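WARN no homologs supplied; continuing
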Amino acid sequence: EVYLEVSDPGGAGALLIANGDSITARADGATTEQLRYESYDADDEPWWRIRDDGGVIRYELSSDGVEWRQLAETPAFFDSSAVQIAIVGGTWDDPLDPGVAAFDDYNQPP
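OK structure emitted
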């Protein structure tokens, strides 16, 4: 499992979560809401972005870091002017063979 989380200091946040061959856009505010769940291939869309666009939180994916496809959106439910960012990789499976999570080119398309 790999995820990107953008959250406020109080813990409300927006998450993109990839688990095997699926990806989920999730909003964790006063309640947790799964906004979208679909099939996902990391080789096809390795670039992820969560952004505030005039009071709308947009969850986006890209094949090249230039052209973006919107996965989900929700009205902003936290103050995006002061956020924490978490980029996490882990496994729920056998810890003797966890696989590899690699992160590269933050905020810098090729």
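The CA atoms of residues 62 and 103 lie 15 Å apart.
OK
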